[in-house]
Amino acid sequence: MPSTDEPGAETASRSVDADLSARIYNTHGRELSELRAALTASSRRGDASRLGRRQHRAGPMPSAGDANINLTIVAETVDMGWFAAGPAPAGTCVTVSFAAHRKDAGYRTPLSLAECDAWMQALLDSSWMSQAYRCRCATGPAGEGVVSYRVFLDAAHKPVPKPAEVAAEACQPLSPVNFAS
Question: For the residues of the chain, what is the DSSP string, one character each?
Fold first, then answer.
């Protein structure tokens, strides 16, 4: 089952996203700051222990939109070369995935794209968010109800547009006009 979209005008959803994002950060700021710090540390070059594929997790945390749903965030950092068929620019890809589960039964349930966008905005620095992509990374039963995002960082740890050498066709830029669409 795919994530659900909330009805409403696009410009209204953008302001709701900012308000929802602020509410999420005010409630879960400590957990999100710890996850962001882990992502930042594991995506920096120069420390051999930080190279390669690293996974981080936060949650479960209550959904901002439904008290009966818990949300888990799984974030992974990997060298950009992992995605390229040939030579790739130096840098890192950060993938952040959101999965929601019913508190009472534990089964996976969809979460609105508007809420996922707001969680992503609460997690990332605005300079990272400006280069975020919403992706269809997981397919099949394992990917049902999972919403994923990617941010590509150059060797200087600055967010950049998706490099042409990186295969990620299922990723669409998450500009403000694409929030919750």
Answer: -PPP---S-HHHHHHHHHHHHHHHHHHHHHHHHHHHHHHHHHT-SS-GGG-S-EEEEEEEEE-SS-TTEEEEEEEEEEEGGGGBSS---SEEEEEEEEEEEETTT--EE---HHHHHHHHHHHS-HHHHTT-EEE----SGGGTT-EEEEEEEETTS-EEPPPTTB--TTEEE--GGGTT-
Tell me how far apart the alpha carbons of residues 119 and 124 are, in angstroms, rounded to a whole number: 9
Question: CA-to-CA distance for 83 and 150, rounded, in angstroms?
Answer: 12
Q: How many CB atoms lie within 10 A of CB 53?
A: 10
Amino acid symbol at 45: R
- Count of C-beta atoms within a 10 Å radius of residue 125: 12
Residue listed under structure tokens 């039963």: 141
pLDDT in tens, 69-119: 999 999 888 887 777 777 878 888 888 999 999 988 888 888 888 888 889
State the Rg of the chain over Cα. Answer: 16
In the chain, where are the structural domains located? Answer: 10-178
Report the C-alpha gap between 168 and 181 in whole angstroms: 19
Among residues 67, 89, 91, the alpha carbon closest in space to that of 78 is found at 91
| Confidence (pLDDT) at 1 | 38
Tell me how far apart the alpha carbons of residues 119 and 113 are, in angstroms, rounded to a whole number. Answer: 10
